[in-house]
């Protein structure tokens, strides 16, 4: 707690003088299950400590709560203090909460969160990320607190804003996080250099193509042209290509096999609309897509950079070494990739994804089990999720210092293209309240939110599989995937290698994991009826 207000001291003295034993108490948030009893007791204590007011209903008598918030950036900003000061100018007056903002680069974030959780160090609020700091991993390690009692008491804006998306972090009556409210519908796109297409007279063909046969025709045109033959026609990197995490695509785009992964991050789960769970690598759609990329590799269209030593796909474009790549992206993909690649790109969507638990929990704000101020953390989220000021501060920094706004669009200030603070908009509490960045239209947020609301919701939104009893099997399966995934995805692995891949997965008992997903999904579906 920070400084105590003088009026609070006076109030306590009056309470003592008149024997008002109930002075300052308030209603306790009700626990939603036996497993949250301890949390509810903490919530009760917080409520009693932070909601007192004077007899006239005037000045707030509460102590100021202080929270430690952690999130990450791919490159840590040079200065956070001026942003923290601006955030606290809002939160201290509005909800009597002081926020200490800690921003780490992504690798340091993953390591530091692991170390801090192992040492039971204080983290009141964090944005989940990757590897050991991912939502699914922290859930498996029982490192996240059930915040349902706090959301019930302090989070009306959270529940109203997120709606069904909150189901992604809900298990029974417990809630383990607040998904960032953003366009979570990520689909795969083919990205192609527009200057090359324009020069070859293929731009209209590219924008209207509906199959990979047409894409191959374009690759051949680039590969055989005198002017552009020096470019790699297509680049594979880990996670890219027609074999996506939640879809296998070959032939006509309209026939893409889009499925739910049920939160699986290994790439083994294929859950269809009928609730049937199978090993993804054994499906016809996976094997057809694998055969297609083998043909690309054999015909000389495909280049692979498995180590990433040449940088990202966008870096290859910037370095004038690449024509196209396939990657997952969200609404506004063409503008975003054009900016990242430094040249106009043509984006062609392969399929439409659904709103899934995995997508919703990719970036989620959670209260770890080591938190000291969970109530204050939820109060902050409840304020932030409806505050344009806080979201713009967390994403772009301080207006007039780190960026400026011209015609409703944020941009760098001329002469300050590398400000002290500049992060991203997809992992703030509410992306739709951020100014769009330079390159997007002023109404981009409205378009994006409309796209989200028009998207189909997975029938399995809210399902979460507990594999804590299958740690050894998961580790063994992960090792096999690391050995074979890129061979298959890049087209280097033959049909015999694909069968070897499947056989090796079966030899480490991958079916035990598939069966467990099926068992828990069956139980979850039955409970919904």
UniProtKB/TrEMBL annotation:
Comp. bias regions, Polar residues: 29-39
Top-level taxon of origin: Bacteria
High-level lineage: Bacteria, Bacillati, Bacillota, Clostridia, Lachnospirales
One Pfam assignment: DUF3502
Signal peptide: 1-22
Entry-linked PROSITE patterns: PROKAR_LIPOPROTEIN
Signal recorded as keyword: yes
Protein name listed in UniProt: Putative aldouronate transport system substrate-binding protein
Chain intervals for the UniProt region annotation (Disordered): 29-58
InterPro entries: Bact_solute-bd_prot1 (IPR050490), DUF3502 (IPR022627), SBP (IPR006059)
Biased composition (Low complexity): 40-55
DUF3502 domain segment(s): 459-526
Organism: Catenibacillus scindens
Record keywords, A-Z: Signal
């Amino acid at each position: 707690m920070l400084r105590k207000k003088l009026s609070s001291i006076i109030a306590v003295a009056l309470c003592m003088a008149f024997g008002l034993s109930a002075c300052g108490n308030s209603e306790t948030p009700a626990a939603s299950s036996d497993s949250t009893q301890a949390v509810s007791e903490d919530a009760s204590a917080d409520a009693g400590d932070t909601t007192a007011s004077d007899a006239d209903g005037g000045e707030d008598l509460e102590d100021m709560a202080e929270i430690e918030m952690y999130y990450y950036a791919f490159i840590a900003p040079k200065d956070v203090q001026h942003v923290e000061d601006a955030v606290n100018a809002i939160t201290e007056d509005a909800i009597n909460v002081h926020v200490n903002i800690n921003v780490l680069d992504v690798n340091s974030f993953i390591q530091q969160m692991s170390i801090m959780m192992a040492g039971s160090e204080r983290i009141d609020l964090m944005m989940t990320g990757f590897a050991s700091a991912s939502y699914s991993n922290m859930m498996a390690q029982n490192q996240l607190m059930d915040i349902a009692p706090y959301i019930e008491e302090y989070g009306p804006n959270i529940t109203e804003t997120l709606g069904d998306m909150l189901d992604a972090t809900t298990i029974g009556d417990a809630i383990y996080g607040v998904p960032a409210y953003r366009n979570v519908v990520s689909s795969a796109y083919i990205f192609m250099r527009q200057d090359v297409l324009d020069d070859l007279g293929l731009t209209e063909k590219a924008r209207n193509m509906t199959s990979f046969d047409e894409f191959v025709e374009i690759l051949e045109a680039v590969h055989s042209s005198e002017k552009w033959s020096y470019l790699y026609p297509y680049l594979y990197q880990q996670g890219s290509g027609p074999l996506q995490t939640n879809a296998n695509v070959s032939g006509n785009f309209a026939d893409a096999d889009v499925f739910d992964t049920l939160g699986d991050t290994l790439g083994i789960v294929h859950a269809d609309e009928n609730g049937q769970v199978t090993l993804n690598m054994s499906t016809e759609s996976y094997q057809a897509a694998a055969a297609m990329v083998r043909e690309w590799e054999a015909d000389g269209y495909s280049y692979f950079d498995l180590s990433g030593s040449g940088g990202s796909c966008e870096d290859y474009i910037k370095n004038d070494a690449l024509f196209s790549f396939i990657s997952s992206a969200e609404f506004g993909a063409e503008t975003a990739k054009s900016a990242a690649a430094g040249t106009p790109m043509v984006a062609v969507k392969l399929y439409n994804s659904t709103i899934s638990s995995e997508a919703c929990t990719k970036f989620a704000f959670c209260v770890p089990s080591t938190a000291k101020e969970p109530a204050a953390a939820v109060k902050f989220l409840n304020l932030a999720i409806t505050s344009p000021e806080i979201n713009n501060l967390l994403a772009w920094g301080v207006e007039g210092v780190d960026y400026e706004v011209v015609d409703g669009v944020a941009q760098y200030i001329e002469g300050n293209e590398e400000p002290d603070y500049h992060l991203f908009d997809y992992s703030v509490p509410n992306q739709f309240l951020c100014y769009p960045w330079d390159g997007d239209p002023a109404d981009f947020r409205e378009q994006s939110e409309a796209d989200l609301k028009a998207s189909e919701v997975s029938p399995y939104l809210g399902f979460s599989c507990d594999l804590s009893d299958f740690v050894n099997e998961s580790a063994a399966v992960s090792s096999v995937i690391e050995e074979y995934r890129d061979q298959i995805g890049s087209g280097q692995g033959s049909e015999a290698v694909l069968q070897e891949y499947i056989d090796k997965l079966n030899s480490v008992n991958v079916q035990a994991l598939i069966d467990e997903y099926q068992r828990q999904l069956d139980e979850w579906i039955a409970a919904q009826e």
